Amino acid sequence: MESTEAPSRGELLRRATELVPLLSKHANWSEDNRRLSEEVINALTEQGLLKMRVPKRYGGYESDAGTVVEVLAELARGDGSTSWTAGVWAISTWAIAMFPDEVQDEVFSTPDVRICGILSPSAVAVPTDGGVVLNGKWSFNTGAQQSHWNTNAAVRATPDGGYEPVMVALPVSDLEIVDDWYTSGLRGSGSVTTIAKDVFVPEQRVLSMGPVLQGQSLSPANAESQVFSSPFLPIACTTVGATVLGLAKAAKDAFFERLPERKITYTSYEKQSEAPITHLQVAEATVKIDEAEFHARRAASLVDAKTGAGEEWTIEERARIRLDLGAACQRAKEAVDILNTASGGSSIYSSVPIQRIERDVQTLNLHAIMHPNTNMELYGRVLCGLEPNTLYI
């Protein structure tokens, strides 16, 4: 066992900033090859940015939500797919900390282990002696080809003929990988389909989903850790919201980088920067980026405040995390749309980053847990005194 003194938030953010040029350089390669380059993964590993959710006793940092959000948002300034993949690895690493200590010992015995995960229960686990037999498939399994372990949701058959949701942990090598990630956005994330065919999973690597969603770990070693005491969805939502925020900032960076050399064709404006419409566009986009950042930071601050105080979460607070995620997604997309529209016809070339940013942010806004409409409806429902119509809060 190795206990590590975690770097400060500022230090981790500095490391992320240093990687932005490298991520930008490899972004087109990742798109073309539909996965992250080994150079990018090695850089993330060497800088310790994949340790933020690893328990300290395994050499990790147990970083708080605010740190994770800032680091992932910064990575997204270089490449959305890299930020997204690193975020999924962070969430799934956190999920492993819910399992018994013997499972964590097994998983974290792999140096620099990478863990992917899916929360949609699209497989069936049938009980057998000592565990379950797993059959099913999971689409959108981000980073699976470049991961060692997988935390996946499934339903377990019960003696009364029903099913209960569970989370299973299994090596990626136990799964068949379907190379089907041909998409318009987040193309570098390698979010392929994985299939389980009669895979045996021992009982200690099968958890009832209810306690996982509540952040009720079966790990005595993690019992005193604030990071691993939160409900699951607030952890997951704050993490993935960082990527859309970073993409919006990347769009602003990309727009202003090209602005000095641009004119507005078929008008009298030889400098786009002198056109009033441009002034309106960049101001409106900046306001929306600030609003996205407000929601992303508010969510992270609430997670850190609740875990720091050891307080129980109210239903309204948990639904508000989903609201903040949806609002951050919506504002970020609106900002990117404005800046993309203002970038002109030459921005459609693949060498111009803003077209990739536009596709990536649109893809994230369509994600089931991130969709603004879904999250606003959920929060409004709770405000109106109704019970949430989902387990995922």
Description:
It is a single chain. The chain is α+β, with helices and mostly antiparallel strands. It has three domains: 9-112, Butyryl-Coa Dehydrogenase, subunit A, domain 1 (Orthogonal Bundle), CATH 1.10.540; 115-208, Butyryl-CoA Dehydrogenase, subunit A, domain 2; 230-383, Butyryl-CoA Dehydrogenase, subunit A, domain 3. 49% of the residues lie in helices and 14% in strands. The longest helix has 34 residues, at 276-309. The chain starts with 8 loop residues before the first helix and ends in a 10-residue tail after the last helix.
Break the fold down into its secondary structure elements and pairings:
Blueprint: H1 9-33, H2 38-46, H3 65-78, H4 80-96, H5 101-107, E1 115-118, E2 123-128, E3 131-141, E4 149-157, E5 163-171, E6 176-178, E7 192-202, E8 206-208, H6 209-214, H7 232-258, H8 276-309, H9 315-341, H10 353-365, H11 372-383
Parallel strand pairs: 1-4, 2-4
Antiparallel strand pairs: 2-3, 3-7, 4-5, 5-8, 6-7
Helix pairs in contact: 1-3, 3-4, 3-7, 4-7, 7-8, 7-9, 7-10, 8-9, 9-10, 9-11
